[in-house]
Amino acid sequence: MEKKETIINGAYPNHPVVAVGAVVFNEDKVLLVLRGKPPAENRWSIPGGSVKLGETLQEAAEREIMEETGLTIQAGDPVYTFDIIKRDQKGKILFHYVIVDLEANYVSGKLIPGDDATDVCWASSRDVKTLKVSAATHKLLKQCYSSEWM
């Protein structure tokens, strides 16, 4: 009989986890967080997190952005969807996220990293080219906004 792995920080799920991100622009800069936990640990990415039971995508995005950045946003429509599936050395599913990124408007607040974000910033297209940005964030900005983000 095989021992079941313990789920820690989303690792070894028994089903895909639905997550949401918010693409927030302010004065030609995009909101990014430096992830403090896997699967995107030490990478800058669009802020967001898991959708809780009973939440809409918009409610989840607004909650997650407040938790990770201290900002109030108004979440809108989906602009990008992707999967993160990572396996461990034995081939078992370590992480499986289905992520829906929404466009969002900045409403108010000051940047304060929280939750699993170790830092938070407003990044220009020039900044994005020099920061250690996740592959999914690069792809999102290039496909949905313009080539100036690459």
Structure description:
The protein is an alpha+beta fold. It has one domain (17-149): Nucleoside Triphosphate Pyrophosphohydrolase. Helix content is 19%, strand content 41%. It contains three helices and seven strands; from the N terminus they run ββββαβββαα. Strands 1, 2, 3, 4, 5, 6 and 7 form a seven-stranded mixed beta sheet that branches. The longest helix has 13 residues, at 57-69. It is globular, with a radius of gyration of 15 Å. It starts with 16 loop residues before the first strand and ends in a 6-residue tail after the last helix. 31% of the residues are buried. Mean pLDDT is 90; it is low at 1-7.
Look at the structure and give the mean pLDDT: 90
- CATH topology (fold) name: Nucleoside Triphosphate Pyrophosphohydrolase
In total, the number of strands is 7
Count of all domains:
1
Biggest sheet descriptor: 7 strands, mixed
Number of helices: 3
Q: What is the class in the CATH system?
A: Alpha Beta
Q: What is the CA-atom radius of gyration, in angstroms?
A: 15 Å
| Cα separation of the termini | 49 Å
Question: Any idea what the shape is?
Answer: globular
The structural class is: alpha+beta
* CATH A-level architecture: Alpha-Beta Complex
* Share in helix: 10-25%
CATH superfamily: Nucleoside Triphosphate Pyrophosphohydrolase
Strand content: 35-45%
SSE order, one letter for each helix or strand: EEEEHEEEHH
The low-pLDDT segments are 1-7
Please summarize what this structure is:
The protein is an alpha+beta fold and 150 residues long. The chain is built from 3 helices and 7 strands, in the order E-E-E-E-H-E-E-E-H-H.
